[in-house]
Amino acid sequence: MNFLMDIVVYTIIECTFIGMSLEKEIKQEKFQNEFEKGAVNVMFTAGWLYNMNASRLKLHAITPEQYNVLRILRGSHPRPLMLADITCRMIDKNSNATRLVEKLRQKGLLKREICENNRRQVDISITEKGLTTLKRIDAEAESWLETLKSITKAEALELNRILDKLRSS
Amino acid sequence: MNFLMDIVVYTIIECTFIGMSLEKEIKQEKFQNEFEKGAVNVMFTAGWLYNMNASRLKLHAITPEQYNVLRILRGSHPRPLMLADITCRMIDKNSNATRLVEKLRQKGLLKREICENNRRQVDISITEKGLTTLKRIDAEAESWLETLKSITKAEALELNRILDKLRSS
DNA sequence: GCTAAATTAATGTATATACAACTATTGTAT
DNA sequence: ATACAATAGTTGTATATACATTAATTTAGC
Fold first, then answer.
1. At residue A111, what are phi and psi to the nearest 5 degrees?
2. What would the pLDDT profile of B113-126 be if each residue is shown by its tens digit?
3. Which residues pair with residue A81 across a beta bridge?
4. Does B88 reach chain A within 8 Å, measured CB to CB?
5. B119: helix, coil or strand?
6. Which of residues 37-96 of B touch strand D (CB under 7 A)?
7. Which of A82, A84, A109, B103 can bridge A104 by disulfide, Cβ–Cβ 3.0-4.6 Å?
8. In this complex, is the C-beta atom of B3 within 8 Å of any C-beta atom belonging to chain A?
9. Which of B9, B22, B96 should one mutate to test binding to chain A, selecting the residue with the greatest count of A CBs within 10 A?
10. B-contacting residues of A 45-64, CB under 8 Å?
11. What is the three-state SS of A38-101?
């Protein structure tokens, strides 16, 4: 997270017992129960995913957070979004959209215009250069998606179902 | 989360189609397939978990990363650990253990001693105050664990299995 | 023994994040 | 109309992160 994760991952190492995969990866570990292990596993895996992402995006000189903003903007293109729209879609409400947007503007990947109807708000939209950049990244995304296919489609569905249920409390 | 999350989470918003829970939570979203959705879901859920964690730990004036280090040290207590031992258990290899440890030392939660046998290395161990702090946090952890139990034990097992498999590529 | 390589940790620096405080503009109540 | 509240973004600041570089000590080769 932040998840990112690099997320921001936390782990718990309390014992020398070695069990399955997760325990091995973070060295001698024991969890209170499957639920706690699940929470750590989600955060650990998120960090793993985020790192893969970050390194492939690095070649294009953008961070995962910046990539996120660009994709959000492409999603509404050609309609612009105001800053608050971007923030609420970013999930990490803490992350500072103002500064993220400014970074992308400096790179010419998006443009900002004061909205005439409501001068408090700013209309933000992706530029041609931004679209081109995303297209180049998309073209490379194949191998990244292949990595995810170490699980079956049925397992992916099950994973999504369980995660949605976990958050529904 | 940011983690996490605050994790550090990235999302993809490209459409106005509304489907299940994850799509709703990050507003009008459509994914290429279940695999991509799974990756985003893991990172999003990690951020959600990290934020819950961060806010409960804030009352004790420590961050999730610092909490992680303390638990690692408790795990080996009373044997001290060197810095590299802590780093390799932290997963986020980027995070700077030197400075995290220094923060905790300033709070009196751990102590550092130059190792006599090998003066390059530093023996780090949790203090009584550190143990007491962890104990107080443990006492409050019940409700946090309860939150995780919105899924069944079987689902938690399945979640762990799928995540381990996902990373095994 | 002396030099080169490896190990262990600390530091520098640019960027990012968390969170509070602030500015500007618009909406609402009297 | 004026004052007060709500909305939309920006800025300040302390801390954290990423990553490269440096420093100190130990090990190994010759």
1. -130, 150
2. 999 999 999 999 99
3. A124
4. yes
5. coil
6. 63, 65-66, 92, 94-96
7. A109
8. yes
9. B9
10. 45-50, 53, 64
11. HHHHHHHHHHHHHHHHHHHHHCCCCCHHHHHHHHHHHHHCCCCECHHHHHHHHCCCCCCHHHHH
- B95: the nucleotide nearest its CA (via C1') is D17
State the DSSP H helix or E strand holding residue A112, giving kind and residue range, or none if neither: strand A110-114
Q: How confident is the model at residue A26 (pLDDT cuts 50, 70, 90)?
A: low
Q: Name the E strands within chain B.
A: 110-114, 122-126
Q: How many angstroms away from the CA of A45 is the closest CA of chain B?
A: 7
Cβ of residue B106 near strand D, that is under 7 Å? no
| Beta carbons of A165 and B155 less than 8 Å apart | yes
Question: Which tens digit of pLDDT belongs to each residue from A99-145?
Answer: 999 999 999 999 999 999 999 999 999 999 999 999 999 888 888 88
- Retrieve residue B99's tokens: 């400075």
Which range among A23-27, A153-157, B117-121 has the greatest average pLDDT?
A153-157
pLDDT tens digits, B8-44: 233 333 322 223 467 666 665 678 889 989 998 998 8
pLDDT of residue A143: 82
Q: At CA A156, angle to CA A36 and CA A26, rounded to 5?
A: 35
Q: What is the DSSP letter of B131?
A: H
Mean pLDDT of A36-42: 90
Which residue is closest to B142 within chain A, CA to CA?
A: A36
One-letter amino acid of A149? K
Tokens in use for B88? Answer: 């390799």
Q: DSSP class of residue B110?
A: E
